Amino acid sequence: xxxxxxxLKLANEGRQRIEWAAQAMPVLDGIERRFIKAxxxxxxxxxxCLHVTTETGRLMQVLKAGGAxxxxxxxxxxxxxxxxxxxxxxxxxxxxxxxxGEDRDTYFRHIHQVLDAKPRITMDxxxxxxxxxxxxxxxxxxxxxxxxxxxxxxxIRLRSMxxxxxxxxxxxxxxxxxxxxxxxxxxxxGQSTVDGIVRATNRLLAxxxxxxxxYGWCGRGVAMRAAGLGARVIVTEVDPLRALEAVMDGYTVAxxxxxxxxxxxxxxxxxxxxxxxxxxxxKMKDGAILCNSGHFDIEIxxxxxxxxxxDRRLIRDQVEEFTLPNGRHINVLSEGRLVNLAAAEGxxxxxxxxxxxNQALCAAYMAQNGKDTPKGVMGVPEEIDREIARLxxxxxxxxxxxxxxxQERYLNSWEMGT
Length: 418
What we know:
Elements: H1 11-22, H2 26-38, E1 45-50, H3 54-65, E2 69-74, H4 82-92, E3 96-97, H5 104-115, E4 121-124, H6 128-136, E5 146-149, H7 152-163, E6 170-173, H8 178-201, E7 209-213, H9 217-228, E8 232-236, H10 240-248, E9 252-253, H11 256-262, E10 265-268, H12 278-281, E11 288-292, H13 302-308, E12 311-316, E13 319-323, E14 329-333, H14 339-342, H15 349-369, E15 376-379, H16 382-395, H17 405-411
Parallel strand pairs: 1-2, 1-4, 2-3, 4-5, 5-6, 6-15, 7-8, 7-10, 8-9, 10-11, 11-14
Antiparallel strand pairs: 12-13, 13-14
């Protein structure tokens, strides 16, 4: 079986870690039992470009249980857990092409290797798989019946493609499901990002000034967790509505030009490029710590920082120190890549349970309906979203009320007024 991983000897350690993650993923466990009976992906080749974590490993097992021929590559050069990659190859016979720390050429070679299998369904996190298909392997587009996209950045790219009329097949925006972004983006990103920062630096957040750039669901989560550890949180935004929400949530809102002067920690979660730039670096205090939790490593203008610095060194694992001409030092975590995956382990399993339940059920939906679905970006079918919420509550032992017949009539009528 073709594969490219760091060391197959890590397989047993990886299997144990996948099993540990699975214990907190009861929704996906229930879907696996359904898939074993129904085999909704029977005979379908599925190429996945995702962060190769323990939770992803569990998803791959479930997709294979549903009948899919699965291949997996990394969606970020620093997010792979090498023992998980080895375990999937050795114990689950799933071709994996992912090595933590791989260079750009290897990263894209791995994407091409999963595409060599001529997949019928794509599963993406950031849309690099889809963009490679459309730019370099257009001859395969006619074979694709559908796909799914995991994250905000990928959905933005796909919607741009759809608006320009170049998206060649239907893709479900898994990120837009309520059971994904309201929980994964907020609670998952919030906890795992702060976890990555603390692991990388071992610095105390209490009493520090923590600047969060971007107040989408990920930014909300990071701000909430940083504040929970005692940091003074400043939010920077370009959207007036989100800025107003941040104010109402109790945070200080200011332009980055002002925040740069007083921040101790800076975390970008915008999905845009060069949020932190040369003019900001020049204003930062000595020892400022910069990190990114957006999908791509473009949110911090690292090329400008490298060009400006008079010296740079890896002062600690995952921490690179840059010395500026003014003598101050700026520390960048994890090369400006996803700090929650590069310096920690990514989102906790219990929140990824819902995200990957969406992925599994949406892949099955595309296998059955993709041929009859128009090209473009579509939302997760509401019945899937609500079913995942129901299953999660059930797994947590939580019951909720149901409407009485009288209440249903009232909600569906216009005659019953005050």
